[in-house]
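Q: I'm building a small set of examples for a reading group on sequence design. Run inverse folding on the following structure and report the sequence directly after it, with nothing in between.
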């Protein structure tokens, strides 16, 4: 926990940005019957019955101090998919940076081994050399700022029923662009000092 909090206390550095990463999913749902449009005095009505259309996977990376995020919607969430997302961050989104400080949870796909499974050893090593990885502790996912951003994304962008992968991808790209344009930053306030006081029960008693 303190390791991650120290990372969050660093000043902004465009050459070594702090980027938080998380992932989630969304059940795609189609309507069996057309919704009844809104009329004066009546809200829009949706039938309880629906049709499952599969699952869309979500990869989220957010740079808290710059107000920039990267959201990709994919059809799978394998080691290879995670590796491709990380390569995109390294080569495209942050291609001009020296190193990326990456904060994420300990999911079994979130590791250097996934890069070696997806790419040649030379390519995996090249990508890994650009990363400084910090893991949130077990049961400490609340420390991952990307989880907070995912919650905002789900409320603002994909809260309702979405029938197809293509529609969700289009909605996500627009939300991502609008939020980046607004430069919505994250002002993280919880410090190491706060942790030692408020979470004192987690520390050994000496």
């Amino acid at each position: 926990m303190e390791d991650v909090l120290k990372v969050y206390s660093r000043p902004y550095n465009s050459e070594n940005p702090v980027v938080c990463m998380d992932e989630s999913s969304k059940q795609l749902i189609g309507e069996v019957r057309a919704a009844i449009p809104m009329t004066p005095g009546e809200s829009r009505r949706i039938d309880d019955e629906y049709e499952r259309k599969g699952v869309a996977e979500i990869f989220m990376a957010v740079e808290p101090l710059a107000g920039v995020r990267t959201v990709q919607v994919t059809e799978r969430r394998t080691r290879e998919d995670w590796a491709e997302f990380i390569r995109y961050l390294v080569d495209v989104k942050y291609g001009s940076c020296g190193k990326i400080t990456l904060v994420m949870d300990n999911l079994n796909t979130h590791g250097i081994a996934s890069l070696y499974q997806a790419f040649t050893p030379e390519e995996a090593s090249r990508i890994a050399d650009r990363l400084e990885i910090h893991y949130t502790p077990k049961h400490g996912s609340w420390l991952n700022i990307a989880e907070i951003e995912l919650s905002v994304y789900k409320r603002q962008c994909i809260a309702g029923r979405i029938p197809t992968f293509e529609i969700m991808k289009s909605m996500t790209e627009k939300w991502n662009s609008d939020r980046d344009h607004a430069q919505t930053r994250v002002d993280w306030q919880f410090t190491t000092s706060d942790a030692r006081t408020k979470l004192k029960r987690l520390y050994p008693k000496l």
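Residues 29 and 52 are 5 Å apart (CA to CA).
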